[in-house]
Amino acid sequence: MTRTRIRWLIGLLSCALIGLIAFQYYWITEVTKVNKERFNQSVNDALNSVTQKLAIENGINFLEDDMRARPPLRRVNTNVRRDSLNESIPVNNQEHIRAQDIPNPEEFFSSFFRISVDETTGEVFFQIDFEAFSRATFPNQPSFVNPRDQQIQMERQMNRQMDLLKQRWARHLVGSDNLFARVDPPRLDTLLAAELEDRGLDMTYNYGILHKPTNELKLLNADNRNASEDIKSSDLMVNLFPTDLVDRDFYLAIDFPNERNYLLNKAILPLSASGLLLIIVIGCFAYAIMVILRQKKLSEIKNDFVNNMTHEFKTPIATVSLATEALQDDDIKGNKAIVDRYVKVIRDENKRLGMQVEKVLQIASLDKKDFKLKFEQADIHNIIEKALVNINLMVEKKGGSISSQLFAASSILEADKVHLTNIIYNLLDNANKYSPDAPEINIRTDNISSGIILKISDKGIGMSKEATEKIFDKFYRVSTGNVHDVKGFGLGLSYVKNIVEMHKGSINVKSEIGKGSTFKIYLPFKHG
After folding, report:
1. According to a count of CB atoms within 10 Å of the terminal CB, is the N or C end of the chain lower?
2. Which contiguous run of DSSP H or E holds residue 274?
């Protein structure tokens, strides 16, 4: 896949992912908004229900206290006939007659008294059928009472009672400014708690009665000043006396300190599911991009490896081919010295090919995890000195030098001698190869409590920060492409890192372009 196609693919996937995230954000916002609206609606319903119940209870109290009283109907004035009345009515029956003068209130209201409401105008009408009332016969009514006088007197009395009744009813409908004469705080608290519980709003709340014109809380169920300010600024409030004809500007307001947590708990399931899906999608997207880039990188590394391997194998093969052809010449066959020289060339190139193949096989074995080391007591100083003997000739050939500072007092450790020699030789060989001028190489050992620190430094071309992060990757080389100023497969440092880690050690590098590199290896005394 070309770089342009990869960029287009990443761009399209990024746009799709951004769109999905935006949609999820919009959806979550809408869910939160709906939950908020439902919460506010439930609270407002509860507050309205409380105010309606308070209004009903006030109405009932009014009817019970002011309307249930029996009208104090007075008997007809009979002063002019007092004597004859006294003579007609025995004394022992006067109290009985007085108790029977007034009819039963229930019968009175149902027979002669009617209340009607004009639904169009909202007006309330009180009607008394005086004619029927005047024709009514009351128990033990004196026979000498003039019916006409009785009707006139009763009409007057009833009109006075109706006037009083209308006044009381008007005062009740207008409503009183005396808040606590109309609201019982314990009853209000009970009603509010019950209404909120019925709607599933089982959470901490503060409420109060707010007088809007003065912005003063007339009643508050909390002592906290912050709570009172929150109640005043709350959007959750309703008119406390919605049935009053004149608005008293008293409002029942409520605030929920844990409202945010409540809404979050309500939305936790969709939020969690949405978040999980987004994480999965983002993770898959990132993994897909990473795989694409890694495959592209591996493709480039593979091409570099094939090019380098072709070059590394082609040179010794060509040399062996030329030497073989030379040995077939009859003139050369008779010259033993020349034959021996060509045979030595063939042997050296064959050995070189074998070493290259061995490196590839070693890395393959490491990848299969079936590579085993042979641990034994080894002196790292002896291993370093043997490696210096082999590498020193190549360094001196380029006019360079190697210095050693073997300061480790305890140089014995458990290690695989062969592979420990290989990693030291690889690092020294790299220091030599990547020093274009006369190499200056230094190798040093030091002790720490748990093992040995080995440092190999050079003053070569150095590496960038990006290169130091990738230098231990398999097949990675600072020189890419079919450039063979520095030979190799890019397997050496990968092999070194694997062997060090199999010894339970660690390796890192510090490098600066143009100033050289320093490899630092830690090897414990015991690998277990």
Report:
1. C
2. helix 268-327
